[in-house]
Structures are given as C-alpha cells and as structure tokens.
From TrEMBL:
Its cofactor is FMN. InterPro entries: Aldolase_TIM (IPR013785), Alpha-hydoxy_acid_DH_FMN (IPR012133), FMN-dep_DH (IPR000262), FMN_HAD (IPR037396), FMN_hydac_DH_AS (IPR008259). Keywords: Flavoprotein, FMN, Oxidoreductase. The lineage of its organism: Bacteria, Bacillati, Actinomycetota, Actinomycetes, Kitasatosporales. PANTHER family: 2-HYDROXYACID OXIDASE 1, S -2-HYDROXY-ACID OXIDASE-RELATED. Coiled coil: none annotated. Residues 7-362 form the FMN hydroxy acid dehydrogenase domain. Belongs to the FMN-dependent alpha-hydroxy acid dehydrogenase family. This is Alpha-hydroxy-acid oxidizing enzyme.
Length: 368
C-alpha cells in the first residue's frame, strides 16, 4: 500500500458516486442540462433538503433478518418499489441511449418509462421480460398524440403517464447561458419529422410541440381514449389530486419535475403526505424528484407512496458505463433499500408503509 489518497473504489458505493463519474466524461453543457433546474434552482436544492429533514422511526424486535423489496407498481411486478423515470434525450449521454436503459431496467426487474421525447423509436423500448410505462406530453399535433397512445397500447405498456406540469419548459438558466441546443443524434424521433427539433433550444422545441392549453376536459378525453391505467405526473396540490381521481385517474406522480419547472415549488416529498391524506386508497401514488438512495425510497414509502421514479442517477450511470452501469446502479439501490428496510424493522414493502417519520425543526408541518 502506497501513501497518499486511496484509489477510487472499482464499483460505485453510492448513486452520488455515479454523478461524479459522469461529470468527468460528459461535455459541460450536457452535464448542466441533466443536472440543472429552473430559475435559481431553489426547488432543485429543496428536493434534497426535504429528504434530509425527514427522519425515520425504526421498529425494533421485529425479527427481520432480511427484507423483501418485491411489490407491484401500477399493476406491473417490480423487484423493488422503483421505476425508471421518463427522461428525454438519453443519447446525449451515451450512444446506446434508451434501449440500454430499458434492458438494464428489465434485468433489474423494475419498470422502464419511455418518454415522448425519447431519441429512439418506441418499438425499441419494450425489452423482453420488462415492464413498460409510457409518458405522454400533450402535443399541439393531436393526431400524433393519438398515435403515441396507440403505440403505447400496441407495445404492451402497463400504464400511461400524462405529464401535466409542463405547459412550457421552465426557464433553465444553465442551458440559456450555455446556448444549449438539441443535437441531431438526440432528437426525439417519435414526433413527426418536422417536429424533431434538432438544433433548437430545449425550451424553443418544447414551445413548438407541447400544447400549453391542457385542461381538465382534455384529461377526460384521454381517459376515454385509452384502456391503460392513467397516471397524472406532476401533481402537488391535494385539490388537484382529488379532482384527478374523481375524473378517473388510476394513479398520480407527486412531482415538481426534478426542480426543472416552477422554481420555488414545494418539494415533492413535503407535498406527498397531504395528497395521500386527500385521496386515501383511491389511487396509487408514486413520487419523484430528489431520490438518491435506498433510504430515500423508504422515506417515500413511509409517507404514503407506493414507490418512486428514479431519474438523474440513471442517466449518470448510463453516461459513466452504459447498460452494465445502469444495471449495477439499480442493483445498488436495491441493496441499499433492503438494508434500510431491515434496519428499520420493515420485513416487506407493506410494513415499510407503516413506519413512522419525524420532521426536523423548521419543516412546514402543514405540508408534511
């Protein structure tokens, strides 16, 4: 053993390690696109801070030698209460793009959510043995919106996630300062050819293709149009959650879009308990924005979520080592979750949902 600093571990020990590795290999403007949030990034930081202020109350003498993380999400079997979040432009960070992530998710036994703005055709994103969700933006081109719904059904998607918090893209200052534009190799091929947006800014492209007038009446149309379980992604207000359920939503994703839309919005984790109180058991609740480890997943379960969507860490893994690194990241997350559950005295996912939490002083108890 030589003196000086120890060499980095051959395998990442946390999901945060993956971000460090990805930053070392990505162009700075691509790293900023993935890592950044909107405005002054106050919500981006608040998402993580909320997890750090949420303290679990472990149970003892439970006899839990090993925890079982298996569950179902939106009717799909999952090895743990985690699905890969919908994210645009995977090819920005690695040439294998979305198909590599879809295969890794299938290998890890978790659902993969294909995005409207994927850089690869949808029929490449339904790997054998893997559960597929599909995320839908409400497009100005209604015929293309219908085609996307039909494709999701044809490919055996288990749920349709309608994103409702993006009438237009939030003002992302890192991208504006970098003059970031969508390169041709990452353009969203599932839109009509004239709408691919290569060479446009992300905000400019979104403004050209996303219809900002999405309303509750459109939700009713989507509900009638598809036989898939319908999930609204981007809900933070309990009244909106109640109305969505009343109009036939099967699930909700409590989300502030990873801090990339309204800067200053409530952290998703703080919004979760009030929404669970409002809807009760009437629909399934997922959570995203800020999840960075197994203990975070356990916190979300304890606060009423059925599971979480994992976003940026998946792209960091893809950037740092392709498909094998994504598989490894998901296995690392399951290892962390299994350990956290056992230490908390929760032998299974249902027991995890019965754990108590305490909030650090200064947390808004009305939200939490």
């Amino acid at each position: 053993m030589t003196g000086g600093r120890a060499a980095p571990a051959a395998d990442p020990l946390t999901l945060d390690d993956l971000e460090d590795r990805a930053r070392a290999v990505l162009a700075s403007e691509v790293y900023d696109f993935v890592a950044g949030g909107s405005g002054h990034e106050s919500t981006l930081g608040a998402n993580r801070a909320a997890f750090d202020r949420c303290h679990l109350v472990p149970r003892v003498l439970s006899g839990t030698a090993a925890a079982d993380t298996a569950t179902t999400l939106l009717g799909a079997p999952a090895s743990m209460p985690v699905a890969v979040a919908p994210m645009a432009f995977h090819s920005l960070v690695h040439p294998d793009g979305e198909p590599a992530v879809a295969r890794a998710a299938a290998a890890a036994g978790v659902p993969f959510t294909a995005a409207t703005l994927a850089a690869r055709p949808l029929d490449e994103l339904a790997p054998d043995g893997g559960a597929l969700f599909f995320q839908l933006y409400w497009l100005r081109d209604r015929a293309r919106t219908e085609w996307l719904i039909d494709e999701a059904e044809r490919l055996g998607a288990r749920a349709l996630l309608l994103t409702v918090d993006v009438p237009f893209m939030g003002r992302r200052l890192r991208d504006l300062r970098n003059g970031f534009a969508v390169p041709a190799h990452a353009a969203p091929v599932n839109l009509a050819a004239a709408q691919h947006g290569a060479g446009q800014s992300v905000g400019g492209h979104a403004a050209a293709v996303i219809d900002p007038t999405l309303s509750w009446s459109d939700l009713e149309w989507v509900r009638r149009r598809t036989r898939l379980p319908l999930v609204l992604k981007g809900v933070l207000d309990p009244a909106d959650a109640r109305r969505a359920v009343d109009l036939g939503a099967d699930g909700l994703v409590v989300s502030n879009h990873g801090g990339r839309q309204l800067d200053g919005a409530v952290p998703s984790l703080l919004a979760l308990p009030a929404i669970r109180d409002e809807v009760g058991d009437a629909c399934e609740l997922l959570l995203d924005s800020g999840v960075r480890g197994g203990t975070d997943v356990l916190r979300a379960l304890a606060l009423g979520a059925s599971g979480v969507l994992l976003g940026r860490p998946v792209l960091w893994a893809l950037a740092s080592g392709g498909e094998p690194a994504v598989t490894g990241a998901l296995e690392l997350l399951r290892t962390e979750l299994r350990a956290a559950m056992a230490l908390a005295g929760a032998p299974d996912v249902a027991a995890a949902g019965r754990l108590g939490v305490r909030w650090a002083p200064g947390t808004n108890e009305r939200e939490a």
